[in-house]
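Onboarding guide, step 5: your first structure request.
Type a short instruction followed by the sequence, for example:

Predict the 3D structure of this protein.
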Amino acid sequence: MSESAVLAPVTISARAAAQVNKVLSREAPGSYLRIAVNGGGCSGFQYAFDIVVERDGDDLVIERDGASVLIDPVSVGFLEGSKIDYVDDLIGQSFKIDNPNATASCGCGTSFAL
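The system replies with structure tokens like these:
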């Protein structure tokens, strides 16, 4: 398999990339959206979204349409195969992570169990 055919462990939709660009346009130049998995939440693990200006050398960098998202190596293991999307529905606007590793999640979608 060629290097260009290797799939990213986490992908980002065009809608999510557009929203990341919109959010980061109001931040310091060179800012990134960092997504992490932390212990806690009503299902055991929760997603964390932060704006940062520095990236660590071992971060996974996901880029699409000019948007850059960082994920630390520990969180990548929890998010492998996930798709980051952005939804705008009756209950509000938010980033949504479709995580195939999650065996359960809370109603609001911000925490999950493995």
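Each response can be followed by summary notes, for example: The first strand starts at residue 10 and ends at 12.
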